[in-house]
Design goal:
Elements: H1 2-11, E1 44-46, H2 59-65, H3 79-90, E2 92-96, E3 99-102, E4 113-119, E5 128-133, E6 138-143, H4 148-155, E7 165-172, H5 173-180, H6 184-205, E8 208-213, H7 218-225, E9 232-242
Antiparallel strand pairs: 1-6, 2-3, 4-5, 4-7, 5-6, 7-9, 8-9
Helix pairs in contact: 2-6, 3-6, 4-7, 5-6
């Protein structure tokens, strides 16, 4: 165990100066990985971009009230509230000179992150797992198995707890490795943390709360999202629901 601990410590403290002389895929002019994940399955939902019924709070208020929430009120999220959470957490703000700018920092604008959501109780949306199409602000259905709620809860190690939505922050490692090679995994985990913090604070605006989750079944979660679990896998999860 001691060797494993030391090995993992080294993985998150690489020497940045080594990168300057490293022959990365970018320096070798290899083909650049795709910027975004798109799924063409015929069911796409356009989300709202204006939030007329959401009363804004100050950043100080959101920081002061933020707590990890593990018990949720039995109340649906509105379609507007879900749209707002995704808009502030994971959207692409704009693309300029082939560079992706998001609502969160990404290493060298490599944007390795994708966001999936399990819709448990949201008005106007059927229950299921959806991919957030970050450059179009849309949802695309990924998984609507009949027993999807039980599959999600089991993969979360029984931590669903009646949450209205579950966010999954996944990462396509070749995107960040293209520029940063073996530094990529560390940078991807930082990006996931940025996204989850945005989610936690944005949830406070709608009188909801989030609970960040790192303890989940890796294989079952990746299978649930229909991602390969090798170079694209889940790094972070978060349950979201209304405060009691």
């Amino acid at each position: 165990m001691k060797d494993r601990i030391e090995q993992n410590r080294k993985a998150i403290r690489p020497s940045w100066s080594d990168l300057y002389d490293l022959k990365t895929y970018k320096k070798m002019n290899k083909p650049k990985p795709e910027k975004f994940l798109h799924i063409d399955n015929g069911l796409t939902i356009d989300l709202l971009k204006e939030f007329k019924d959401i009363k804004q709070k100050s950043l100080s208020e959101c920081i002061a009230s933020r707590r990890s929430l593990r018990a949720f009120k039995d109340q649906s999220l509105t379609f507007e509230e879900l749209s707002y959470l995704l808009w502030e957490t994971s959207r692409v703000d704009h693309i300029e000179n082939d560079i992706v700018y998001k609502t969160i920092p990404t290493a060298g604008a490599t944007n390795s992150g994708e966001t999936f959501v399990f819709i448990n109780d949201v008005e106007k949306i059927e229950s299921g797992v959806y991919l957030y199409i970050q450059d179009k602000h849309q949802l695309s259905l990924v998984n609507d198995d009949d027993n999807i709620n039980e599959i999600v809860n089991k993969a979360l190690l029984r931590q669903l707890r009646g949450a209205q939505v579950v966010f999954y922050f996944t990462h396509v490692l070749p995107r960040v490795e293209y520029k940063y090679a073996y530094f990529g995994p560390k940078l991807a985990t930082l990006e996931a943390g940025h996204a989850c913090q945005n989610l936690s604070l944005t949830a406070e605006v709608i009188d909801a709360g989030a609970c960040a989750i790192a303890a989940y079944n890796q294989e079952e979660t990746d299978h649930l999202l229909k991602i390969n679990g090798a170079d694209h896998f889940t790094i972070y999860c978060a349950t979201v629901g209304k405060k009691k």
